[in-house]
Predict the structure.
Amino acid sequence: MVSAPHEAMHRIFQDHPGLFSGVSEVLGVDFGPLVGVTILPTDLTESRPVERRVGTLLRVETEDGGSYLLAIEAQGKKDPAKPASWTYYLSYLHTKYRLPPVLLVVCQDRATAEWATLPVDIGPPQWPSITLRPLVVGPHNMPVITDAAEVRKDLALATLSLITHGADRDPDVILKAMTTALRETPEAIKNPIVELISQGLGNLPAAALWRKLVAVDLSFYKSPLSEEIRDEGRAESRAEDILFILELRGIDVSEDVRGRITGCNDAETLLGWLARALNTPSAEGLFETT
């Protein structure tokens, strides 16, 4: 199953295709200014029943009138089978589009990034026919942006940097710099970035801190994530009300029932249970349907 951080690291390039210009500058590889980017189909499946699908595929137009393909892969862990797949992608893309392909691998942990950076020779050691050399982005080479002014200069690059550094021990400074920068950002730009960061951080501890920062900062009041957090808060409060009423009526609540009540996030369901809590003869009666 594809994880949320995996999707986020593709979405940021799909939503901000020009991001590669800033990334290539960080990596010290001069591709020149981008004057046009086209999102291409990602399905690399052949007519035979073998499916190969690259994460994101962009056709980039350069200032000098040239073009190249940018294939982007999000890699969450070391995978010995990946270099062969990546080599296939590049070969297939070169054959299909007759354009030079570049592979960019985006990672969230240093060990995976350093593994992906290693060149892979394909062929006998005395004369490798192909050498795979992907560009790799990860916590080992992305800048740690802790200044709101720097974040504002390139929101897309700062967002990617934040996601790649999401597993750092002290992410709060990075997150606060982002929230500070976003306060004065128009809603149409701010809200997608708020959601993208939440998705990109996945289940990392930094994700909980990000949600808390968004929840308490009034400048994010109308963002979808803030609405979700407020809904969760209402659900938690309603669950506490149900348990309080049952306790007040002297009704025993088993651990299973308590877990079912506190684990429910559906507001309508909780409202129904709250109404039944007023007259149900047992805690289990909350869940009975008529």
Remarks:
- The mean pLDDT is 85.
- The chain is about 50% helix and 15% strand.
- The first helix runs from residue 4 to 15.
- Strands lie at 34-39, 56-62, 67-75, 101-107, 120-122, 130-132, 135-137.
